[in-house]
Amino acid sequence: xxxxxxxxxxxxxxxxxxxxxxxxxxxxxxxxxxxxxxxxxxxxxxxxxxxxxxxxxxxxxxxxxxxxxxxxxxxxxxxxxxxxxxxxxxxxxxxxxxxxxxxxxxxxxxxxxxxxxxxxxxxxxxxxxxxxxxxxxxxxxxxxxxxxxxxxxxxxxxxxxxxxxxxxxxxxxxxxxxxxxxxxxxxxxxxxxxxxxxxxxxxxxxxxxxxxxxxxxxxxxxxxxxxxxxxxxxxxxxxxxxxxxxxxxxxxxxxxxxxxxxxxxxxxxxxxxxxxxxxxxxxxxxxxxxxxxxxxxxxxxxxxxxxxxxxxxxxxxxxxxxxxxxxxxxxxxxxxxxxxxxxxxxxxxxxxxxxxxxxxxxxxxxxxxxxxxxxxxxxxxxxxxxxxxxxxxxxxxxxxxxxxxxxxxxxxxxxxxxxxxxxxxxxxxxxxxxxxxxxxxxxxxxxxxxxxxxxxxxxxxxxxxxxxxxxxxxxxxxxxxxxxxxxxxxxxxxxxxxxxxxxxxxxxxxxxxxxxxxxxxxxxxxxxxxxxxxxxxxxxxxxxxxxxxxxxxxxxxxxxxxxxxxxxx
Length: 569
Fold this sequence. Notes:
The protein is built from 14 helices and 21 strands. It has helices spanning 11-18, 37-51, 57-60, 72-88, 93-106, 119-135, 149-167, 278-281, 286-300, 320-333, 381-386, 432-442, 461-471, 483-488, and strands at residues 194-197, 215-218, 225-229, 241-245, 257-259, 270-275, 310-312, 318-319, 338-345, 352-361, 365-372, 378-379, 398-401, 409-416, 419-425, 446-450, 476-480, 499-504, 511-514, 521-531, 545-556. Strands 4, 7, 8, 9, 10, 11, 20 and 21 form an 8-stranded mixed beta sheet that branches. Strands 3-14-15-16-17-18-19 form a 7-stranded mixed beta sheet, with helices on one face. The radius of gyration is 25 Å and the shape is globular. The N and C termini lie far apart (62 Å).
């Protein structure tokens, strides 16, 4: 794309940037409308975002009978056109006519034009955005039938991609969609913009994110690589989801924090440290950890629930190679859907702090994802004293976590009908760029934050940032830390805090979850219900949004704690 002065950017300039090879196959021009709804969405959403047109009075002031456009008839026309496109997989006549008018009359219109004349093209763009969103209803989720051709095509191609990934973990693209799993566009290069399915529409604010139910506009894959992971398992209901939260390690020796001998070349007070999980693993084997420990806790959960669906461990709980073996054992020995744990991989400059998610499919195979932490932990003097680490780290220096944070990625995983889960690692919950931009746009129904932190209380930082996500986009948030870090945050002799997790859902207060004395895990039951959400223009989603609530919480005690666990405070 030719370099353009931002102050003079036109609609045609945006088209050339988002669709450099043209709108349709075998054509390098932009006169024809995009044949694929996510492609059209990408370009009109880019125009909408950069022009701010959605804040115009005629799209918001429903009390203004003279100028307000989004009447019931307007909504019906949009929904009818979107449904027609979703079923026939070809743009309806209304979409073609709107596109022709936009290109013929307004291609040279500047996107910063605030005059009354600009309302003509802004109305067209707004309408095309809504139709493209409606045409993409259900994308990213298993269809109940093949009636919705767009949804079915996306689902079918995801299954192709997942099969390709079994042979090559770095496989990109299916038969139709060349950029899976990072984008469901066909003509829009992911280095420019990405489009992904979506699960939550914000209830508050006036943003582009408030305009859609089904599609999310994301930044370049070079900024943050987002992978949507569909499931081919035929979920049919919204049954309770049972999560076993294990706050391992139960104790963390100070020597687990290993400081480097030298500081930064430019600042001697800037130092680095690494974590050594071998210290708290106490020579346990993967077989012992999975079979003696986790399976024992699952067995102890049986009086309360028929089945445990997920096991969650905190940040850096295990080494990656160790966790891989544990997952293989759990696949054979349990009925789990998910095993989520923080892991450490590599060493020295190549070390990574990861959120590992192992998704068990049909009790036969594992589909795994490993999301790197995006921000390094910085231990300052206050934190060093709070966690009683002054014997291994100089509190007069700032100590940075020695991990690689390059190539930032984010995973969104379908795990229930119409519902997704994403995992964040500690600092990433509190830093807006880059991963929270994705979280806000897609709006996972459930966000699990793996922490290496003190007690999980509403007034502390995890509670504050969980509230932000619960308010907008409306995600339910579960934060989890280890009992070992909670114990290190107390002075010797003081009463021990045991708040190892925190739950926050939309329209509810944050709840600190306390591990009872003598117990080894918390068993949480999440209830789910379908609710209807509305876009800024008044379109409902038919009640397809899933809302998770905390239905029950129970302490779980291991019947015969393995000796290698060591003392539990």
